[in-house]
Specification:
By secondary structure, the protein is of the alpha+beta class. The protein has helices spanning about 15-35, 35-45, 85-100, 110-115, 130-135, 165-180, 180-195, and strands spanning about 5, 10, 65-70, 70-75, 75-80, 85, 100-110, 125, 140, 145, 150-155, 160. The strands form 5 sheets. It has a 3-stranded parallel β-sheet. Strands 4-5-6 form a 3-stranded antiparallel β-sheet. The radius of gyration is 22 Å and the shape is elongated.
Length: about 200
Amino acid sequence: MDPVDVAFAFPKNEEGRNISEKVSEFIKKAKMDGTMDTIADAWFHDNRKNQVTDVKSLTGERGVLDLAAGCGCPPFCFVRDDETVGFDIDLLIRFCREYGYRLNIHNMDLDAVIPSLQNMCNIAAGGISITDGKNESLLFCEPYCQAENVVVVRKNNEVNAGMGFSSLVSSFEKSFVKEGRWKLILKGISTTIFISVF
Protein backbone atom coordinates (compact mmCIF):
# COMPACT_ATOMS: atom_id res chain seq x y z
CA MET A 1 0.00 0.00 0.00
CA ASP A 2 1.17 3.52 -0.74
CA PRO A 3 1.97 5.89 2.14
CA VAL A 4 -0.73 8.44 2.97
CA ASP A 5 -0.29 12.14 3.74
CA VAL A 6 -1.13 13.14 7.32
CA ALA A 7 -2.31 16.66 8.21
CA PHE A 8 -4.56 18.72 10.47
CA ALA A 9 -8.19 19.04 9.37
CA PHE A 10 -10.36 22.18 9.46
CA PRO A 11 -14.02 23.00 8.83
CA LYS A 12 -14.74 24.04 5.26
CA ASN A 13 -15.56 27.67 6.02
CA GLU A 14 -13.81 31.05 6.08
CA GLU A 15 -12.39 30.61 9.58
CA GLY A 16 -11.13 27.13 8.72
CA ARG A 17 -9.48 28.41 5.53
CA ASN A 18 -7.79 31.26 7.41
CA ILE A 19 -6.35 29.00 10.14
CA SER A 20 -5.40 26.30 7.62
CA GLU A 21 -3.36 28.79 5.60
CA LYS A 22 -1.48 29.97 8.71
CA VAL A 23 -0.77 26.41 9.87
CA SER A 24 0.42 25.49 6.35
CA GLU A 25 2.75 28.49 6.34
CA PHE A 26 4.18 27.41 9.72
CA ILE A 27 4.63 23.77 8.63
CA LYS A 28 6.47 24.77 5.44
CA LYS A 29 8.80 26.96 7.50
CA ALA A 30 9.30 24.19 10.09
CA LYS A 31 10.29 21.76 7.32
CA MET A 32 12.87 24.25 6.01
CA ASP A 33 14.48 25.28 9.32
CA GLY A 34 14.75 21.79 10.88
CA THR A 35 11.99 22.22 13.48
CA MET A 36 9.98 19.38 11.92
CA ASP A 37 12.97 17.03 12.21
CA THR A 38 13.33 17.96 15.89
CA ILE A 39 9.64 17.23 16.55
CA ALA A 40 9.80 13.93 14.64
CA ASP A 41 12.88 12.82 16.58
CA ALA A 42 11.25 13.80 19.87
CA TRP A 43 8.09 11.74 19.32
CA PHE A 44 9.03 8.92 16.96
CA HIS A 45 12.11 8.07 19.09
CA ASP A 46 10.61 9.09 22.48
CA ASN A 47 13.25 11.76 23.05
CA ARG A 48 11.45 13.43 25.96
CA LYS A 49 13.86 16.30 26.50
CA ASN A 50 12.85 17.76 23.10
CA GLN A 51 9.10 17.23 23.55
CA VAL A 52 6.95 20.37 23.91
CA THR A 53 3.74 19.75 25.89
CA ASP A 54 2.98 22.90 27.93
CA VAL A 55 -0.22 24.55 26.68
CA LYS A 56 -0.58 26.80 29.76
CA SER A 57 2.11 29.20 28.56
CA LEU A 58 0.20 30.13 25.38
CA THR A 59 -1.01 33.73 25.36
CA GLY A 60 -4.00 33.79 23.01
CA GLU A 61 -3.87 37.42 21.86
CA ARG A 62 -4.81 36.34 18.31
CA GLY A 63 -7.63 34.02 19.38
CA VAL A 64 -8.31 30.46 20.45
CA LEU A 65 -7.94 27.16 18.63
CA ASP A 66 -10.43 24.55 19.82
CA LEU A 67 -8.70 21.27 19.03
CA ALA A 68 -10.59 18.02 18.48
CA ALA A 69 -7.89 15.60 19.65
CA GLY A 70 -8.29 11.96 18.65
CA CYS A 71 -6.24 10.62 21.52
CA GLY A 72 -6.05 6.98 20.51
CA CYS A 73 -3.31 7.50 17.97
CA PRO A 74 0.21 7.50 19.49
CA PRO A 75 2.70 8.98 18.77
CA PHE A 76 0.54 11.64 17.04
CA CYS A 77 -1.95 12.25 19.83
CA PHE A 78 -2.38 10.37 23.13
CA VAL A 79 -2.77 10.83 26.88
CA ARG A 80 0.29 10.41 29.12
CA ASP A 81 0.21 11.18 32.86
CA ASP A 82 -3.21 12.88 32.50
CA GLU A 83 -1.82 15.21 29.82
CA THR A 84 -2.64 15.22 26.10
CA VAL A 85 0.65 14.92 24.25
CA GLY A 86 2.14 13.75 20.97
CA PHE A 87 3.59 14.89 17.66
CA ASP A 88 0.42 16.77 16.68
CA ILE A 89 0.13 18.55 20.03
CA ASP A 90 3.81 19.54 20.02
CA LEU A 91 3.54 20.95 16.50
CA LEU A 92 0.38 22.92 17.35
CA ILE A 93 1.83 24.34 20.58
CA ARG A 94 4.83 25.63 18.62
CA PHE A 95 2.46 27.10 16.01
CA CYS A 96 0.29 28.76 18.69
CA ARG A 97 3.34 30.17 20.45
CA GLU A 98 4.60 31.78 17.24
CA TYR A 99 1.22 33.07 15.99
CA GLY A 100 -0.26 34.12 19.35
CA TYR A 101 -3.10 31.59 19.78
CA ARG A 102 -4.34 29.78 22.85
CA LEU A 103 -5.02 26.04 22.49
CA ASN A 104 -8.06 24.38 24.10
CA ILE A 105 -7.76 20.61 23.78
CA HIS A 106 -10.94 18.52 23.64
CA ASN A 107 -10.07 14.82 23.96
CA MET A 108 -12.43 12.48 22.14
CA ASP A 109 -12.67 9.13 20.37
CA LEU A 110 -11.24 9.08 16.86
CA ASP A 111 -14.69 8.60 15.31
CA ALA A 112 -15.94 11.84 16.94
CA VAL A 113 -13.06 14.04 15.73
CA ILE A 114 -14.33 14.87 12.22
CA PRO A 115 -17.99 15.46 13.24
CA SER A 116 -16.82 17.88 15.98
CA LEU A 117 -15.57 20.27 13.26
CA GLN A 118 -19.20 21.01 12.36
CA ASN A 119 -20.09 22.82 15.59
CA MET A 120 -17.52 22.58 18.37
CA CYS A 121 -13.91 22.75 17.15
CA ASN A 122 -11.96 24.64 14.49
CA ILE A 123 -9.07 22.19 14.08
CA ALA A 124 -8.73 18.41 14.33
CA ALA A 125 -5.70 16.23 15.04
CA GLY A 126 -4.83 12.61 15.63
CA GLY A 127 -2.85 11.30 12.66
CA ILE A 128 -5.60 12.25 10.19
CA SER A 129 -4.94 10.99 6.68
CA ILE A 130 -5.91 13.03 3.65
CA THR A 131 -8.34 11.18 1.38
CA ASP A 132 -10.53 12.19 -1.56
CA GLY A 133 -13.65 11.49 0.51
CA LYS A 134 -12.54 13.74 3.37
CA ASN A 135 -11.48 16.47 0.93
CA GLU A 136 -15.12 16.90 -0.09
CA SER A 137 -16.21 18.12 3.35
CA LEU A 138 -12.99 19.28 5.07
CA LEU A 139 -10.00 21.52 4.54
CA PHE A 140 -6.47 20.24 5.16
CA CYS A 141 -3.26 22.12 5.79
CA GLU A 142 0.12 21.27 4.31
CA PRO A 143 0.85 17.59 5.17
CA TYR A 144 3.35 17.29 7.98
CA CYS A 145 4.32 13.65 7.42
CA GLN A 146 3.49 10.44 5.58
CA ALA A 147 2.24 7.30 7.30
CA GLU A 148 2.43 3.69 6.18
CA ASN A 149 -0.70 1.54 6.13
CA VAL A 150 -0.34 -1.65 8.15
CA VAL A 151 -2.40 -4.74 8.91
CA VAL A 152 -2.68 -5.67 12.59
CA VAL A 153 -3.21 -9.30 13.71
CA ARG A 154 -3.39 -10.76 17.21
CA LYS A 155 -0.87 -13.48 18.07
CA ASN A 156 -0.64 -15.09 21.53
CA ASN A 157 -2.38 -12.10 23.17
CA GLU A 158 0.12 -9.65 21.65
CA VAL A 159 -0.65 -7.21 18.83
CA ASN A 160 1.84 -7.27 15.98
CA ALA A 161 1.81 -4.99 12.96
CA GLY A 162 2.80 -6.27 9.55
CA MET A 163 2.27 -5.59 5.90
CA GLY A 164 2.57 -9.17 4.66
CA PHE A 165 -0.20 -11.24 3.14
CA SER A 166 1.56 -14.32 4.50
CA SER A 167 0.76 -13.31 8.10
CA LEU A 168 -2.95 -13.21 7.22
CA VAL A 169 -2.74 -16.61 5.53
CA SER A 170 -0.90 -18.04 8.54
CA SER A 171 -3.52 -16.63 10.93
CA PHE A 172 -6.35 -18.04 8.79
CA GLU A 173 -4.69 -21.45 8.61
CA LYS A 174 -4.14 -21.56 12.38
CA SER A 175 -7.67 -20.58 13.41
CA PHE A 176 -9.70 -22.06 10.56
CA VAL A 177 -7.86 -25.29 9.78
CA LYS A 178 -5.71 -26.32 12.76
CA GLU A 179 -8.19 -25.26 15.45
CA GLY A 180 -11.07 -26.84 13.53
CA ARG A 181 -13.26 -23.77 13.21
CA TRP A 182 -14.36 -25.03 9.77
CA LYS A 183 -16.47 -27.59 11.68
CA LEU A 184 -18.46 -24.79 13.30
CA ILE A 185 -19.19 -23.24 9.91
CA LEU A 186 -20.21 -26.63 8.48
CA LYS A 187 -22.49 -27.25 11.47
CA GLY A 188 -24.01 -23.77 11.06
CA ILE A 189 -24.70 -24.40 7.35
CA SER A 190 -26.32 -27.78 8.04
CA THR A 191 -28.50 -26.26 10.78
CA THR A 192 -29.57 -23.44 8.44
CA ILE A 193 -30.50 -25.95 5.70
CA PHE A 194 -32.42 -28.09 8.21
CA ILE A 195 -34.41 -25.08 9.44
CA SER A 196 -35.03 -23.88 5.87
CA VAL A 197 -36.40 -27.29 4.80
CA PHE A 198 -38.85 -27.45 7.69
